[in-house]
From TrEMBL, chain B:
Gene3D superfamilies: 2.40.50.100, Nucleic acid-binding proteins, P-loop containing nucleotide triphosphate hydrolases
tRNA processing among keywords: no
GO biological process: carbohydrate transport
Entry protein name: Sugar ABC transporter ATP-binding protein
Family matches, as Pfam families: ABC_tran, OB_MalK
Keyword vocabulary terms for this entry: ATP-binding, Nucleotide-binding, Transport
Domain of life: Bacteria
Protein family according to the UniProt entry: Belongs to the ABC transporter superfamily.
Claim: Ligase is one of the keywords in the record: no
Molecular function terms, GO-annotated: ABC-type transporter activity; ATP binding; ATP hydrolysis activity
GO CC field: ATP-binding cassette (ABC) transporter complex, substrate-binding subunit-containing
Domain ABC transporter: 4-234
Length: 300, 379
């Protein structure tokens, strides 16, 4: 008898559900939808306001459907809105943020990867103590380190500069990246490192050829985390910036304080959304790996 | 290739002593197997030879070179790991050449070496695959290829076959033996599998508790174990141990098995070495195959408790006057359970141990042939 001759029975059987189970399901989804609506509400309001004419917002209500659609707010927010009496839109602040965030993310991730490797796979004296010291930085509230950083930056002659703020983020961020990378790399097999040692590879060669190629999941997690965190960070951004250099999060605060006294909800909303785009783009590009990376090693 | 000499190596982790006074001379081209239960120190010793662990005391010489303080890469050794430790992101070819690259071997020479090793191990079609695309046996071959390609002075194997299924393990075992015969490398091979130890090695090093128990060829290890540990560890099913009392007079000694119905085993005139033990207890070690269903030997009356046919043999779990015994008999011998049978004990093959020291009481003709721990120790 060939396979084709074999009678295949009906394979569409499902486990039967009772009426109670179905009702439970409906109730569950209803609750979830309400909660999702609650969370999405602010985003929806901002997104809608960014395409409404400001007079409509002021006349009707802050929360409402657009009666007239306009994209003018986006243009204004990007290039002509006035912030602290300079009418350049958020464009220069957006690029200032970019110039600071990208190097700070790349450098703190690189340092975290090296730290993680040295702390787990290289015989380093007191590795555990050093690791604990580094991770204390994760739990220190930023307000605690604000003043020491201000003093340190002025000593270094980097006060209120892009380099200074980037340095703060690199060093603060290294605590996080080290924690992530160390916890990832501790699960890499020791035998690989020993094999590389016997194959004659030194510290950097083992790192570059063996460890790094195995680390994309944690690199993606770390980059997303660092980029989002540094981009969205507000306290350091406000404290360690000046009119010469100001990240977008700090600049947004000044956007509404217009000298005519009229609240500009329209391009204000657009500016907020522009500021939110880069982290979202990063997350959409790497989000799949982000979740996978965070749960790495949980099931094996 | 080179010889390896291990001189009074000790290893301590804090207060825990993992290795105790290890002395071993391994000749050029010799295949030596380190065997012992887990935690006996065999893997630690291998790591020390590889240079992955430092010694707490003692010295290592590879050929004429003192390698005690050299880093692994400067020792010119190769190690095959139990986990294979293939670099997952590299192809088979890159895995094999990584060591050559690090040593700045010219590219054309690398290519030639890879081709040679691939041919030897029959992994040519696999060279451009990643380790994840290989079966267990193929990974094993690649791991061996990575070791072979560098032409090291010494090969180390850390339980290389233990991750393979039973059939493949036997195949690879034979292949390793063939390979050694062909290439004649010096090999130190760690395993907990005594069959591997017996079949592969020129000499076996039995370890326990961080100490060498016995170093000898497989036959000597099996037939003349140096102490109770070696006797009990090597052999499956394990050796039967009976505590007996030596009675009679010199030249006509007997071993008496105490109990409600004592059994007397006449030892005849060939066991003069037991004369000093007259009136004292010794431990008699009997291999299961030395209890035979017929033929010459001392008759022993036993009750059959369990019959376990294994295929090539029949294993019997017996009760002899209150003492448990295991016998391995030919497959066609199938006594009924709970029946009374008489087995012939090959008393000449039995080993005798001093129960206090655990050491073998050597027969007169063995003399100094038995390498005991004490004999291996240097002044």
């Amino acid at each position: 008898m060939t396979v084709a001759d074999t009678h295949i029975p009906d394979l569409t059987r499902r486990k039967p559900r009772s009426a109670g189970q179905i009702a439970g399901r409906v109730a569950l989804y209803a609750v979830l939808l309400v909660m999702a609506g609650f969370v999405l509400m602010p985003l929806a309001v901002i997104a809608l306001n960014s395409v409404r004419v400001n007079e409509d917002i002021l006349r009707e209500s802050f929360i409402g459907w657009p009666t007239r659609l306009t994209l003018e707010n986006w243009g204004t927010a990007w290039s002509t809105a006035c912030i602290n009496a300079s009418c350049t839109g958020v464009k220069p602040y957006f690029w200032a943020s970019m110039l600071m965030v990208v190097p700070a993310t790349v450098i703190s991730t690189a340092v975290g990867l090296l730290n993680g490797f040295a702390l787990t796979k290289w015989r380093m004296p007191c590795a555990d103590v050093i690791f604990v010291c580094i991770t204390i930085g994760v739990f220190l509230p930023p307000q605690v380190v604000l003043l020491p950083w201000a003093i340190a930056l002025s000593w270094l002659g980097l006060a209120k500069s892009l380099t200074g703020l980037a340095l703060v983020h690199i060093i603060q961020g290294t605590c996080f990246t080290t924690l992530f990378c160390r916890n990832y790399m501790i699960n890499l097999p020791d035998d690989l490192i020993r094999a590389a040692q016997i194959d004659g590879a030194g510290f950097f060669r083992t790192f570059w050829r063996i460890v790094l190629p195995l680390s994309p999941p944690i690199i993606i997690v770390t980059v997303i985390w660092q980029f989002t965190f540094i981009w969205n960070e507000f306290l350091f951004a406000v404290t360690f910036s000046s009119s010469d250099f100001r990240p977008i999060t700090a600049a947004l605060m000044s956007l509404n304080a217009d000298d005519t006294g009229v609240s500009e909800y329209g391009f204000g909303s657009a500016a907020v959304l522009i500021a939110a785009i880069p982290p979202l783009v990063i997350y959409f590009l790497g989000g799949r790996y982000f979740v996978r990376g965070l749960t790495q090693g949980a099931v094996k | 290739m080179a010889s390896l000499s291990i001189e009074t190596i000790w290893k301590a982790y804090g207060d825990v002593i993992a290795l105790r006074d290890i002395n071993l001379e391994i000749a050029d081209g010799e295949f030596v197997v380190l065997v012992g239960p887990s935690g006996c120190g065999k893997s630690t010793l291998l790591s020390i030879i590889a240079g992955l662990e430092d010694t707490s005391h003692g010295a290592l010489h590879l050929g004429a070179r003192d390698v005690t303080d050299l880093s692994p890469k400067d020792r010119n050794i190769a190690l095959v790991f139990q986990s294979y430790a293939l670099y997952p992101t590299m192809t088979v070819r890159q895995n094999i050449t990584f060591g050559l690259e690090n040593r700045r071997v010219p590219r054309d020479e690398q290519a030639r070496a890879v081709a040679e090793v691939a041919k030897l191990l029959q992994i040519e079609p696999l060279l451009d695959r990643k380790p994840a695309q290989l079966s267990g046996g193929q990974r094993q071959r690649v791991a061996m290829g990575r070791a072979l390609v560098r032409d090291p002075d010494l090969f180390l194997f850390d339980e290389p076959l233990s991750n393979l299924d039973a059939k493949l393990r036997v195949e690879m075992r034979t292949e390793m033996k063939k390979l050694h015969k062909r290439l004649g490398q010096t090999i130190v091979y760690v395993t907990h599998d005594q069959v591997e130890a017996m079949t592969l090695s020129d000499r076996i090093v039995v370890m326990n508790g961080g100490e060498i128990q016995q170093v000898a060829d497989p036959d000597t290890i099996y037939r003349k174990p140096a102490n109770l540990f070696v006797a009990g560890f090597i052999g499956s099913p394990a050796m039967n141990f009976l505590d007996v009392e030596i009675t009679g007079r010199p030249g006509e000694l007997s071993a008496v098995l105490p109990g409600p119905s004592p059994v007397t085993l006449p030892l005849g005139a060939t066991r003069d070495e037991l004369t000093p033990y007259l009136g004292r207890r010794v431990t008699l070690g009997i291999r299961p195959e030395h209890l035979r269903p017929g033929g010459d030997g001392l008759p022993l009356d036993c009750t059959v408790e369990v019959v376990e046919p294994t295929g090539p043999d029949t294993m019997l779990v017996l009760d002899m006057a209150g003492h448990a015994l295991v016998a391995v008999t030919p497959a066609e011998y199938r006594p009924a359970e709970d029946s009374r049978i008489t087995l012939a004990l090959q008393i000449d093959e039995a080993s005798v141990f001093d129960p206090e020291t655990g050491r073998r009481i050597a027969r007169a003709e063995e003399g100094a042939a038995v390498e005991t721990l004490a004999a291996r120790r240097r002044a």
